[in-house]
Design goal:
This protein folds into two domains: about 80 residues, no CATH class; about 35 residues. About 55% of the residues lie in helices and about 0% in strands.
Length: about 120
Amino acid sequence: MKHASYRAHTRDGLQGQITFDILLHGQRLMHQYWVDQWMKIEEMRLNFIRLNQQKLKADTYKGIADAIANGEENVGDWIILPSSHIGCPRNNVQNYQDVIAITRKFSKSEENVVALV
């Protein structure tokens, strides 16, 4: 991620001149490069989550523990995404709750809160 961030910015050369970077002038190819970089970073994050489920204490979530306790056989290998992973359902619920709390704090009446939902 740090390497991709470094490549994304122009740098000053000698005597304050901006150096020519072929990557920043690549047009469509540059866009493909950044999509590939984003996919690499996202894959590394997901692999970290998948390989570190014990450290993330994912086994304490009730849904899987209850399913195993009830003897369900089709549980499979579940990977629990933390709420910090953007786009997962837990992240969406957390963002929704944050929006409602902010609206309640700065709204002049409760009717505005219900109208926004």
